[in-house]
Write a structure and sequence with these properties.
309 residues; 2 domains; six-stranded antiparallel β-sheet; four-stranded parallel β-sheet
Length: 309
């Protein structure tokens, strides 16, 4: 799918995989939510025939926004002016992407607005930090590309999980084997049964996932995590390789490893673990602290770690 605006019949380009129509998404948000503040309003200075790529890298917890447009004149000045106009498109595109980010298993950003009108104002002008990538021209010098990376942690997560005092975590009474673990790894790779449905699915990342046991009793919710940990690295991390050093700061060198038994949610992203494993986590103070500090890594299939919105 392709996001395009500023199209003219005399300057029409073929669709490219991974791109979709930008202004159309804004219209859809307005129709679904019913809020006048979300009316379609494409960027005023968008170059003709601009296309956008919006991609989430769940391993890095980053939203990548890329704008591409054809160069109408063959000159250095025209290339510079086009790149400048494209850079002005990126913040608006990033803001619109917030409506489509899968936050919970049952809710994307736009669904929060339907639940609470205050999110409309919160998402309309969010304070998002970003890092620019160097602008590029293609080999034939007739197309310009600009891009920015927007960290999901903490700016985007803070919009949806704004708590200052964590909810108390459930405790299990009685002794369970603990261990001097430094983190928790939940292996949710491969096809797993989806709770309440006659099907299996791979696990899909979420910005604010939950962890349940086999009875659907909550083990971890986003509002149980220390606010400082949310600011530092979010609710959980995602990866596909348990031997990777990428998340060692989070889970340490001696993480406890648990196999997910199933998945829960419309978007199957909440892992379920065995009741025995859940009780072990919640009965031991050290293990509860690992949950509280967000020292959790969920392993998923490698091909779901990068997602196009």
């Amino acid at each position: 799918m392709t996001r395009q605006f500023g199209m003219t019949d005399s300057c029409r380009r073929p669709h490219r995989p991974g791109r979709r129509r930008f202004a159309g998404m804004v219209v859809a948000v307005a129709l679904i939510s019913g809020f006048p503040s979300l009316e379609a309003s494409p960027p005023l200075d968008a170059p003709a025939n601009t296309e956008l790529d919006l991609t989430i890298d769940w391993k890095e917890m980053e939203l990548s926004v890329t704008a591409v447009a054809p160069l109408q004149q063959d000159s250095a000045k025209a290339a510079y002016e086009l790149q400048t106009r494209l850079r002005n498109v990126l913040p608006r595109a990033a803001q619109q992407a917030l409506y489509d980010i899968p936050v919970r298993s049952d809710a994307r950003g736009v669904d929060f607005i339907k639940e609470d009108h205050r999110y409309a104002e919160r998402l309309a002008d969010p304070p998002l930090r970003s890092q620019a990538r160097p602008p590029q021209l293609n080999r034939t010098l007739d197309e310009a590309t600009v891009a920015r990376e927007y960290p999901l942690i903490p700016d985007v997560l803070r919009l949806f999980v704004p708590h200052e005092r964590p909810r108390p975590m459930r405790r299990v009474i009685g002794w369970r084997p603990g261990g001097d673990f430094t983190g928790l790894v939940i292996d949710a790779r491969g096809e797993l049964p989806v709770h309440g449905e006659d099907r299996a699915s791979r696990a899909y990342p979420l910005l604010a996932p939950r962890i349940f046991d086999d009875r659907l009793a909550p083990v971890l919710r986003p509002d149980m995590v220390d606010p400082e940990a949310l600011e530092r690295w979010g609710v959980v991390g995602y990866g596909s390789d348990p031997t990777s050093r990428t998340h060692r700061e989070r889970i340490g060198d001696r993480p406890m490893q648990i196999a997910a038994t199933g998945l829960f949610g419309i978007r199957p992203g909440n892992p379920q673990i065995a009741e025995e494993d859940a009780e072990r986590l919640l009965a031991n103070e050290n293990l509860r602290n690992l949950l509280y500090e967000g020292r959790v890594l969920i392993l998923v299939d490698d091909n779901v770690l990068v997602e196009t919105l």
